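Researcher: Please generate the 3D structure of the following complex. Treat every line as part of one assembly.
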Amino acid sequence: MKLYCLSGHPTLPCNVLKFKSTTIMLDCGLDMTSTLNFLPLPLVQSPRLSNLPGWSLKDGNAFLDKELKECSGHVFVDSVPEFCLPETELIDLSTVDVILISNYHCMMALPYITEHTGFSGTVYATEPTIQIGRLLMEELVNFIERVPKAQSASLWKNKDIQRLLPSPLKDAVEVSTWRRCYTMQEVNSALSKIQLVGYSQKIELFGAVQVTPLSSGYALGSSNWIIQSHYEKVSYVSGSSLLTTHPQPMDQASLKNSDVLILTGLTQIPTANPDGMVGEFCSNLALTVRNGGNVLVPCYPSGVIYDLLECLYQYIDSAGLSNIPFYFISPVANSSLEFSQIFAEWLCHNKQTKVYLPEPPFPHAELIQTNKLKHYPSLHGDFSSDFRQPCVVFTGHPSLRFGDVVHFMELWGKSSLNTVIFTEPDFSYLEALAPYQPLAMKCIYCPIDTRLNFIQVSKLLKEVQPLHVVCPEQYTQPPPAQSHRMDLMIDCQPPAMSYRRAEVLALPFKRRYEKIEIMPELADALVPMEIKPGISLATVSAVLHTKDNKHILQPPPRPAQPTGGKKRKRATEDIPDCKVLKPLLSGSIPVEQFVQTLEKHGFSDIKVEDTAKGHIVLLQEAETLIQIEEDSTHIICDNDEMLRVRLRDLVLKFLQKF
Amino acid sequence: MTEGLPVPSAGLAGISSLTMDPECSQLLPALCAVLADPRQPMADDTCLEKLLDWFKTITEAGSSLLLLQENPCLVELLCHMLKPQDLSSRVLSFSLRLTGVLAAQEDCFQYLQQGELLPKLFGEAGPLGGAAWTSPAVRSGWIQGLRSLAQHPSALHFLAHCGAVDTIFSLQEDSSLFVASAAGQLLVHILGLSMQGPAGGPPSLQAGDWPACAQKIVGHIEESLRATATPQITQALNVLTTTFGHYHDPWTQVLWVQLSPLVAGLLEKDPVPAAHSLVDLLLSVARSPGLSSSSCGLWETLAQTLSHLSPTQAGPLALGILKLQDCPQALRAQAFAVLLQPLACVLKAMAQDPGSSGVPDGTVGDSMTAGTPLPSKAACVGLLCRSLAHLELLLPLPQRPCPWPQAPLLGAAVTLLQLCGGSARPACDMGRHLCTLLLGCVRVQRAALDFLGALSDGTGPRELVTQVFAVLLEYLRSPDSSPTVLKKAFQATFRWLLSSPKTPGCWDLDPHALLFLRDLLPVLQKRLCSPCWEVRDSSLEFLTQMARHWGGQAGFRHALLASEVPKLTEQLLRDPESYVRASAVTAMGQLSSQGLCFPPAGPEHHGGQQKSLLVELLHILSTDSEGFPRRAVMQVFTQWLRDSHADVAGDTEQFVAGVLQVASQDLDWEVRAQGLELALVFLEQTLGQPRSHCPHAVTPPVEAPVGPLAQALQPLCRVRLFDFAFRALFDCDRPVAQKSCDLLLFLRAKTASSSGLQESRSSPDVASVEAALQRWQAGDQAQPLGDLEPEVVLAVLRSLDLEGLRGALAESSDHVEKSPQSLLQDMLATVGVLGENEADCY
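Model: Done. Output below.
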């Protein structure tokens, strides 16, 4: 069993598991932090961005000044943003049989895999995962395609040149493999390869293994996966949450008794408690709005935004913010808000019960009804006529490199009355803000990450007790900035195995058993013999038939002339193809009784020696030696076959045969 | 009548009526019959308690013997208890206790002895041997009966004779904790009684010569102390603790000298059994004035105990030792080291250079860290919290250890807070482990913040004080601080700001504190917007405290006015949570008093906005659905009136009239009572009398009011103060009526000496007012009094029996229902003996 690790990002995993005869890809996350190296794509021409000075080498060489621009001491690539793909060279991806998706954030690289690697398998995911995943992809494609950029920089990627660049460009990994965003056509084609699954549904893969998605409690339709054969069980835990938010709670019980538990997608901000952060978010939002400022919340169009809107729904009246408009701007805003209301079966119990009342499960429906929350596909169009300040705007993309957020950053960045509140934990907010510096607006970092923290992981592992834990290397040591926080790492026994990008792990357990079916008529023919209380044995002669990873014992072909009336045993012996079977022996030889028997049969001068493993019976007169050990008996005599056979028969008298 | 008991003497009846009124005497036989009847269950045993209390009062005031002779039904009741029957355990228990109360007087005891009633009730023949004994109530009644009875030498003989002491010994192990504890108490009492000596003279100081009963008890204690079972040792220690707490005669020293080797012997066991009880005993002995501690080896025992007990057990002992007035210095040092030990461990674990913690480690081993692996989280947290609480208790005491390690303790508190908050940077494994244990621990955070606040009374090196403010700011900022932790952080911050060094001759904050304030105000702004109402509330309280202390100081004013805090506070007047609104009202009242409401935008806005606050508060007073904000408004208004706030001073009469009118309609009595407080302030200001030290004291005025009285009373009439006060006089809530009564008495006393006003006692106005007041008293307050003339007011004031009313109001509201007669009637009524329930149901 091997694990091929194609992604180095612990929360955007992409691993391939080779288990039995199957090749299973676990998630295909897309690392979008690479876009932070690029200049933002403004929706409308930004004089500030277009007038940024080109970057030149220390010696004054300015051959890169078209590709690289400098802003407040940072250097950015002036080109269409590109993404860092999972490793494609480590394993031939056309051999991947299935891809299991755990949540909509972990499928963003799917079109790159399904459309460009020769992949011909099936993708499994839950319905909300596909639908919301589609929205995220659609938004991404839309954000990038609607601002076509003529220039595509590639010179800087040359290894010799990259070395000369300042950080972080210098340290960017695998820049040659960075790719532009996929097209909507590719998205549609990729999504068409997905097969819908429901929680606890058992899916047979070629008869070899069975995969089952379980609720992971993190997002709508998010799943952990159980991959099991008859005798082995691998759990894949990715992006799980034990907090009570909108999704169905996490199913922990089904993870028990795993041989291997692959653990990814823990919280990215282990020191921030989501409750505290939500409080912080509300306080800062109110503070800004009360002072007449605007609040910008860069966010994804689905996920935490539902919880934030729910908190605000409870908070705005109490904070006297009822008259403040909330805007949600995204090409998929409408779909996201509406989809969330129709996936009732994927929601937590409280929200499910609302559906029967019937009420919309999320209160943002009421916010929309009362005009407190308005949503727009883009800031062009209706929005510009409705726009009223002070206001709160939720919009993408959290990287601040594309999407409507770029416009608001340019618009509001100059006033200290305004605040940008970062809630998504995927991007470093300081890096995200770098191309907007100098910035007068206030920046608040309230990352809300509901995924498991290390305390919860420790409890989970105690509860489900896997034999082995495999996780990204980042989880096996405290974060570099907080090296003293020994609590911020996975602590389990035996220690977790760690992996990093482009590594192949041999998982530490061997398959020892395989299940074989016996045909009824063959089973009927068995004559079990009890050799110990509770343990019976029977010999079986059959033909092993293997097809589609299923093994079946079938009765052997009958001989041409049936020998009716004879004992069954004879019948088997008569089969010409089969070798004559020696009976199997069991039991142990009591030395004293054996010696007595020997004496009875005329052997004298018998000596018994104890050895480490058993006994040696010496027949000095006959110059013969009988070595009796736990699992073997040897009779050593000098070319006296008659004697040997006599002795053998005496030994056999003490053993059971079948 | 029971055989053997003498017939009551009729000649004494006249005297006994002093203790029990005839109505009760009449009801008593019926009640006794009910109690004796097993078919009439007493549902409510609080009645029996009250009944017993009543008998106690009677017997304390008079002769029990006479009571029995007067009321033979009582003896009958007691005799009835001896008959085999299915009696309720409550009644049996009551009877045993009543017997004890009665037999406390020796003559009554003898009387009951004659009838063999006592041995029958308390001996083997009584409930002791019967099925009723399985009820804890009966066992408890038996003990309490004996406890009451054991007051005289005859009782001692009786106890010895009937073998009660052995039963008490066994009851010490009773399954009911109450019974077991009472048994212990009774043993102490009997020991004390027997040591008083038959003639009241001092008993022998030789233990061998002590009375047999005392020897028996001491012998039992000795035996228990030698026992291996912890419960037995605990009982013995508890009995001794009570003994040394109650009796300080010379014999107690003899007792201690005799028993101390056994007590010290307990320390040799591992673990020390009954450690808590042992600590209690040793402290009780040490505090006893009857013992000369130095002569009987107590200090050595204490020192030994300190070093033998675990840190958790030794903490209370150490604190107790440090509180002792006279105690050897070495022992105090040892005790202090025990208290400091956990904090010393924390400092050591976090020190870059081990061994430089600065806290005296003392002689005890490294007990918190002793025994690897480290103690569990619960043990570590418990120990730290206790240690902090003990040190905090010690801090204000005059006998606290000197020198007080202020700086290391400050360092320890700061370090603990950093550990809990995750900002500490431990250098060693021990520190890292501690970090993992304490991270996010709210209990330790609360205890450490309390302790840190308490430490603000002392000074500290500047560097440490900077750290204190830094850690406080960290807590105030942290989104993870729980509301209670945040509240304590605010409290500690305020205390530290108060203690920050002041420039001589200037009450303003020192430059460092002002710098801190600059960081603090943005945090406060954010907290005022918190979604958690507790946080908003404690932020407002903190703001009010700060404004009260530094509102007049330029530095503070400048910083506050430059911030958004006043504006946000004003917005919280409309908070959905009533507590927050109330705190916002108080805060705005305070800010407004000091001109801190709004930044000085311009003179034209200033007045307008200030005015609107008055309007806004009046609006809250008249419309807010919750009581707390309305009460807060009344307090602010009263304070404004007292301080002659600019808005109020403009047209005081209109202000007072408006407020009183709204307050009189309020459903919350506290608002109405506060209205009277405001009326009193106005009255004092109007009559020109400086406010007396006690506002409600009815003292004749030292001098006559300035100007003619009528003129002085006119404003009071104009604001309809009397309408309000008279209405309040008949308020259904007693505190309001009392306050109004005090106010009117105060006014009457002030006007008494004045002769400048003609009273119109017989005018038709007076008559109509009096008629209206009578209707009001009867509950019909619909009709207003209308405009009153000062003369009419004075006349009415004099005609009212205010003193009488005050007397009636001073009686507790249940004084009628509390009478014994009412009690007896109630008890009879519940079982339906009385045809009609005449008693009040309450």
